[in-house]
């Protein structure tokens, strides 16, 4: 087993958004370097977690080829990534009650670090808090983080009763650690939001090889 394996953590790939900047459709199914972004994210996350699930809305069949369980938001009207994280926490509590943590990653992040989950756990443990969030280039990446399953009732309350949408606002309430990654040769949290970003990712692979 790799040093970066966390069998007691379940990974969720977040693919539940509307992808307006990409012109709609599923960003993670776009290809770079001849492979879908989703296949790249799965390949990087799988060795780091005990199991993976996918958060997506609409017809789950389009992701059937991955073999991953697909969980949909149950908060209506595309309430944002927190709704996808809540769907993952609820799924894990129901199906894997022994699991205490979920690691989330935007499914449009093709260069995700291979030590992602272990460094989030280390930061969280060092700070003694229930949440951790990734950082690079002086910016936080709130959708990429580690979430305590035990906080799911509070998250539901925040979304449904308080109408909370900003991730940082909710995490600050419980305590969140930050883990920072270097940005060479590329920012590992580069994400492909637009057709121009797909071109940029192709250029990065052409320049650096498979990163
Ligand atoms: N479950 C869920 N995930 C979301 C929602 N909105 C965004 N996300 C996810 O959150 C991450 C960051 O989303 P963005 O890139 O900001 O939003 P997007 O909808 O994917 O794209 P844009 O419409 O171009 O902003 C991605 O992994 C999205 O799939 C939502 O309403 N529900």
Automatic annotation (TrEMBL):
The N-terminal domain determines nucleotide recognition and specific binding, while the C-terminal domain determines the specific binding to the target protein. Monomer. Keywords: Cytoplasm, GTP-binding, Magnesium, Metal-binding, Molybdenum cofactor biosynthesis, Nucleotide-binding, Nucleotidyltransferase, Transferase. PANTHER family: MOLYBDENUM COFACTOR GUANYLYLTRANSFERASE. Its cofactor is Mg(2+). HAMAP family: MobA. Transmembrane segments: none annotated. Coiled coil: none annotated. One of its GO terms (molecular function) is molybdenum cofactor guanylyltransferase activity. GTP binds at residues 14-16, 27, 55, 73, 108. Its EC number is 2.7.7.77. One of its GO terms (biological process) is bis(molybdopterin guanine dinucleotide)molybdenum biosynthetic process. This is Molybdenum cofactor guanylyltransferase. The lineage of its organism: Bacteria, Pseudomonadati, Pseudomonadota, Alphaproteobacteria, Hyphomicrobiales. CDD domains: MobA. Transfers a GMP moiety from GTP to Mo-molybdopterin (Mo-MPT) cofactor (Moco or molybdenum cofactor) to form Mo-molybdopterin guanine dinucleotide (Mo-MGD) cofactor. It comes from Saliniramus fredricksonii. Residues 11-169 form the MobA-like NTP transferase domain. Gene3D superfamilies: Spore Coat Polysaccharide Biosynthesis Protein SpsA, Chain A. It catalyses: Mo-molybdopterin + GTP + H(+) = Mo-molybdopterin guanine dinucleotide + diphosphate.
């Amino acid at each position: 087993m790799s040093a970066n394996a966390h069998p007691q953590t379940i990974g969720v790939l977040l693919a539940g958004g509307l992808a307006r900047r990409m012109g709609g459709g599923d960003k993670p199914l776009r290809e770079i370097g001849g492979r879908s972004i989703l296949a790249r994210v799965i390949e990087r996350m799988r060795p780091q977690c005990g199991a993976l699930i996918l958060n997506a809305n609409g017809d789950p069949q389009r992701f059937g080829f991955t073999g991953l369980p697909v969980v949909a938001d149950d908060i209506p009207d595309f309430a944002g990534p927190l709704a996808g994280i809540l769907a993952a926490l609820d799924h894990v509590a129901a199906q894997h009650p022994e699991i205490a943590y979920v690691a989330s990653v935007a499914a449009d992040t093709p260069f995700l670090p291979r030590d992602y989950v272990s460094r989030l756990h280390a930061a969280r443990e060092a700070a003694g808090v229930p949440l951790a969030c990734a950082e690079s280039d002086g910016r936080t990446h709130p959708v990429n983080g580690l979430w305590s399953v035990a906080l799911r009732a509070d998250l539901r309350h925040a979304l449904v009763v308080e109408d909370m949408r900003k991730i940082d606002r909710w995490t600050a309430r419980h305590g969140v650690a930050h883990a920072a990654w270097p940005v060479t040769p590329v920012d590992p949290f580069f994400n492909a939001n637009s057709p121009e970003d797909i071109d940029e990712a192709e250029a990065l692979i052409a320049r650096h090889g498979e990163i």
